[in-house]
């Protein structure tokens, strides 16, 4: 094989692997839907009632956060994406969730929803509505109770 062909192959593989790495590790921040209540509740016979976003996905709290302050950035936020408000600023609560829903500005200038002062997150390990696989992860991540 010619040297130039080997170099071209290595460059092509590097581009493909770099693109794959970027797509696999980028942080997509789930956003509330415009016009819909941003929060609702769900229930499970094992864990009881817990909060879900308008897309039905489970919401979590991080015990290392302060009141109205997120401490989850970088790799943490890749694994636990913060729940961002809808562009229309909707912060409605639906279902049996009764509480104060507000928006904070994170240190990276992005916005994040809070419930009774607790910043809200998703868990990348939950694949569909009703999944609660983030409960108790590392002894610091917990379902948010209504």
Describe this protein's structure:
There is one protein chain. With 146 residues, the chain is an alpha+beta fold. The protein has one domain (29-143). Helices cover 19% and strands 21% of the residues. The protein is built from 2 helices and 7 strands. The relative contact order is 0.22.
Question: Topology, please?
Answer:
Elements lengths: L2 H23 L13 E6 L3 E6 L6 E3 L12 H5 L21 E5 L5 E5 L2 E2 L21 E3 L3
Antiparallel strand pairs: 1-2, 3-7, 4-5, 5-6
Quick take:
The protein is α+β, with helices and mostly antiparallel strands.
Characteristic terms for this protein:
single chain; 146 residues; alpha+beta; 3-stranded antiparallel sheet; 2 helices; 7 strands
Fraction in beta strands: 15-25%
The end-to-end distance, rounded to whole angstroms, is 65 Å
Mean pLDDT: 80
Number of H- or I-type helical stretches:
2
How much helical structure, as a percent, in the residues?
A: 10-25%
Number of domains: 1
SSE string: HEEEHEEEE
Shape: globular
Structural class: alpha+beta
The residue ranges in which pLDDT falls below 50 over 5 or more consecutive positions are 10-27
């Amino acid at each position: 094989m010619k040297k130039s062909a080997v170099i071209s192959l290595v460059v092509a593989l590097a581009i493909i692997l770099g693109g794959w790495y970027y797509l696999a590790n980028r942080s997509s921040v789930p956003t509330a839907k415009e016009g819909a209540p941003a929060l609702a509740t769900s229930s499970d016979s094992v864990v009881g009632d817990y909060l879900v976003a308008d897309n039905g996905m489970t919401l979590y709290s991080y015990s290392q956060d302060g009141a109205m302050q997120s401490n989850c950035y970088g790799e943490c936020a890749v694994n636990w994406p913060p729940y961002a408000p809808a562009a229309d600023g909707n912060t409605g609560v639906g279902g049996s969730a009764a509480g104060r829903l507000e928006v904070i500005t994170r240190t990276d200038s992005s916005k994040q929803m809070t419930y009774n002062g607790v910043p809200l997150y998703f868990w990348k390990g939950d694949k569909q509505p009703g999944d609660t696989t983030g409960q108790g992860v590392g002894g610091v991540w917990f379902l948010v109770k209504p």
